[in-house]
From TrEMBL:
Transmembrane segments: 12-34, 54-74, 81-100, 112-131, 152-177, 183-203, 337-355, 383-404, 416-435, 447-470, 477-495, 551-570
Cellular component per GO, a single term: fungal-type vacuole membrane
InterPro entries, alphabetized: MFS, MFS_trans_sf
Pfam families on file: MFS_1
Protein name: MFS general substrate transporter
Sorted UniProt keywords: Membrane, Transmembrane, Transmembrane helix
GO molecular function annotation: transmembrane transporter activity
Location in or out of the cell: Membrane
Region annotated Disordered, chain positions: 271-316
Major location category of this protein: membrane
Membrane topology: Multi-pass membrane protein
Highest taxon of source: Eukaryota
Length: 603
């Protein structure tokens, strides 16, 4: 849609895009709900913990592995094609998973066949593809529809729907179809695909008002009205050699956000503009008094009919909001990209490992020393953890957006300092869960993890815009989003192998083993009464010992991420201070009074 006059900042069409993007995001984050049906799917199909983690990770691979491609598509083609794809893949993926759950294993089979397992993995992968298609479309449209001073807040709000998705769908299924995993999967199939249809018609970038395009630092946009020009009063254009990086001198605003570090600048862009000259216009004013004549200078000219560089649409596209425009090879060679990638890998890998396995953690804690083990009660504890993570995930994305905007707008500190808060939250969550020995206390660790994980994905998209620019934001964020796929795969597979290593082996003769055997017997009896598969060989019954080693590893990983985040925040703060001093000095130089000396004439 083409707008002759862009809508106001808080117009109905812009708010409608924001609201619909939130709905699409709510339907996109169901990969976090895997723990709500993963253990039941595992028991139904006799999957090991490692196999169950592979199924869950295939959904995460679909989300994060396709991010660069989906980002490029939405940057260049718009969101509609991705939303149509999301509708199909979400519907097919969850319908397929439900089919395999309903069919179960053949009567004469003890384990799932390779073909069935691979098809199940493919269905989970399709759900991830669809979820990322919806999320990428909603984030891109929101980021381009609101200016920088509101961007972290509105992007965090939309991404919060992605975190709340698991709670929303698990609550619907629990209230309407309590304990019915098959109907829960049906709710997922329908409830995730329908919002994509709504998004197809309403989710799109809304151009910013003209006044917002001029918010490059403190300098207002120069608006030139051609009607004011006349032959009697031509416009005067001053031309300065663009050998600096400040818009105060030449209209070049690429260092507005303090990117004095070479990683923040697009080298090819700098080379193109280093030796170029930039015009800035002084519109004529009728009745103005000329205080001094214009000195002849080869670098100053008079012309008519041209516009300033700041008013050219192509310039605005390259330097929207004053941020750099880095992509492709420049992104791959940027130290900032790899710094962000490593931090995201360590933190998101920890979060995905916990989210995919919190159901197994709660079952292990509930089963330890419990001869009255009940699958239905265990499922309730699972649902509690999933809901807690989901709600706090949502809150974390909203809260970090407001904190990040406040940090930059009011405290005048870089948003990257907020990564330290996120990393510290992960460390505290892992230490707390490691200390939990009773399933009734696990929700506190889930809340801390969900808050930190939400903060991670609420903050990092905005950091991506600040460090690499808005024009190719979704493509760049797609490459950063490969980090959770890497970290999540490594950490989750490690967790699954650790659980399998603690699975029941040959029965021993001590009292602990006898109690564990009694718990296993109770588990078999309950599953026999409910018609569930009676194989409990893959159920770890040792409580905290099933996963303590994995949590110590993730704690160390998050500590490394905290150290890197301190460096990133300190470096951005240092660059901001240098930029501020540089701009003040150049501002003073530009506004210094001009002293003209009249040389004595030779007699």
């Amino acid at each position: 849609m083409t707008y002759t006059h862009p809508p106001a900042l808080f117009s109905a069409v812009r708010i409608a895009t924001l609201f619909t993007s939130l709905l699409v995001s709510l339907g996109s984050g169901t990969n976090y709900v895997f723990s709500a049906y993963g253990p039941q799917l595992s028991a139904r199909l006799h999957l090991s913990h490692t196999q169950m983690n592979i199924v869950g990770l295939s959904g995460n691979i679909g989300v994060y592995g396709t991010a660069p491609v989906w980002g490029w598509i939405v940057d260049h083609k718009g969101p509609r094609s991705l939303l149509a794809l999301a509708f199909v893949t979400l519907l097919v993926g969850y319908t397929g998973i439900r089919h395999f759950f309903d069919e179960g294993l053949p009567a004469d089979a003890k384990d799932i066949s390779t073909l069935t397992f691979l098809t199940l993995v493919l269905c989970s992968f399709l759900t991830g593809i669809g979820g990322n298609g919806g999320l990428t479309s909603s984030i891109n449209s929101t980021a381009k529809s609101f200016p920088d001073h509101l961007r972290a807040t509105v992007v965090g709000l939309v991404i919060s729907g992605f975190g709340l998705s698991a709670f929303l769908f698990s609550t619907i299924a629990h209230v309407i179809f309590p304990g019915n995993t098959s109907e829960f999967l049906l709710v997922l199939a329908i409830g995730t695909s329908l919002p994509m249809v709504l998004g197809f018609f309403f989710v799109r970038p809304i151009p910013l008002p003209h006044s917002e395009y001029g918010r490059l630092g403190e300098a207002p946009e120069v608006i030139v009205d051609e009607d004011e020009f006349s032959s009697e009063s031509p416009a005067v254009f001053h031309r300065e050699h663009n050998n600096s990086h400040t818009h105060l001198l030449g209209g070049h605003a690429s260092d507005e956000d303090g990117f004095l570090d070479e990683d923040h600048l697009d080298p090819s862009f700098e080379r193109r503009h280093e030796q170029q000259t930039t015009d800035y216009v002084v519109p004529p004013s009728r009745g103005a008094l000329a205080l001094s004549p214009t000195r002849p200078d080869s670098s100053r000219h008079r012309s008519r009919g041209s516009m300033t560089a700041r008013s050219r649409p192509d310039f605005e596209d390259k330097l929207l909001d004053g941020a750099p425009n880095i992509r492709g090879k420049a992104l791959a060679s940027s130290g900032n990209f790899w710094l962000l990638f490593v931090m995201c890998s360590l933190l998101s890998g920890t979060g995905l490992m916990y989210i995919n396995n919190v159901g197994s953690i709660s079952q292990a804690l509930f089963a330890k020393g419990n001869p009255d083990f009940d699958d239905r009660k265990a499922a309730q504890w699972q649902a509690t953890q999933v809901s807690t993570v989901s709600v706090m995930n949502c809150l974390g994305r909203i809260i970090i957006g407001m904190i990040a905007d406040s940090t930059k707008n009011h405290l005048r500190l870089p948003r990257s300092l907020c990564i330290c808060l996120v990393a510290a939250g992960f460390i505290v969550s892992q230490l707390y869960v490691h200390a939990v020995e009773d399933v009734s206390d696990l929700w506190k660790g889930s809340a801390l993890l969900g808050l930190a994980y939400g903060g991670l994905f609420g903050l990092f998209p905005t950091i991506t815009i600040e460090w690499f620019g808005l024009p190719h934001f979704s493509e760049n964020w797609g490459f950063v989003s490969l980090a959770p796929m890497l970290g999540g795969n490594i950490f989750s597979l490690m967790f699954g192998r650790n659980l399998d290593a603690h699975a029941p082996a040959e029965p021993a003769g001590d009292a602990t083993a006898a109690l564990a055997n009694a718990t296993a017997a109770a588990l078999l009896a309950v599953r026999a009464d409910t018609g569930a598969p009676s194989d409990s060989s893959h159920q770890c019954l040792q409580g905290r010992e099933c996963y303590a080693g994995s949590l110590m590893f993730t704690t160390a990983a998050c500590t490394l991420a905290l150290a890197l985040s301190v460096y990133a925040g300190w470096r951005d703060w240092r660059n901001d201070r240098r930029r501020e001093l540089l701009l003040r000095a150049r501002h003073a130089q530009v506004h210094a009074p001009e002293v003209m000396w009249d040389a004595p004439e030779d007699e």
